[in-house]
Amino acid sequence: QVQLAESGGGLVQPGGSLRLSCAASGSFVSINFMDWYRQVVGKERELVARITDDGTKNYADSVKDRFIISRDDAKNTVYLQMDSLKPEDTAVYYCNAKARVRIGRYVEVWGQGTLVTVSS
């Protein structure tokens, strides 16, 4: 059993900043990667950023140089620091993770989402 809980969303003005957090809990051996996705009503869910267990980071072109993903394995938590926010960043942000439940067995889990609204 693995659960993800996002937090940190809210209303912010253009140019402002937010930091999202996603904490994993439950029974698992390790987390192999943790991602941040976002979704606007009527559009497909979009991968925003990924960090793997070796620390490799990848970003969508639309957020590169503005967002930073990081993870704290001791806390089983991934963060997304979002700076210079734009109205087009408005979306529900979801945490996604691949967790090792036991050796050789993995599960992919999703958080319930946190809303980020960028508006004046």
Break the fold down into its secondary structure elements and pairings.
Blueprint: E1 2-7, E2 10-12, E3 18-26, E4 30-39, E5 46-52, E6 57-59, E7 67-72, E8 77-82, E9 91-102, E10 105-110, E11 114-118
Could you describe the 3D structure shown?
This protein is mainly β. The protein has no helices and eleven strands. The protein has strands at 2-7, 10-12, 18-26, 30-39, 46-52, 57-59, 67-72, 77-82, 91-102, 105-110, 114-118. The strands form two sheets. Strands 2, 4, 5, 6, 9, 10 and 11 form a seven-stranded mixed beta sheet that branches. The protein is elongated. The mean pLDDT is 95.
Q: What's a concise summary of this model?
A:
With 120 residues, this protein is mainly β.
Total helices: the number is 0
Total E-strand runs: 11
Low-pLDDT windows of residues: none
Reading the helices and strands in chain order gives EEEEEEEEEEE
Estimate percent helicity: under 10%
Class from secondary-structure proportions: mainly beta
Mean pLDDT, all residues:
95
- Compute the CA-based radius of gyration: 14 Å
Distance between the termini: 41 Å
Largest sheet: 7 strands, mixed
Strand content: over 45%
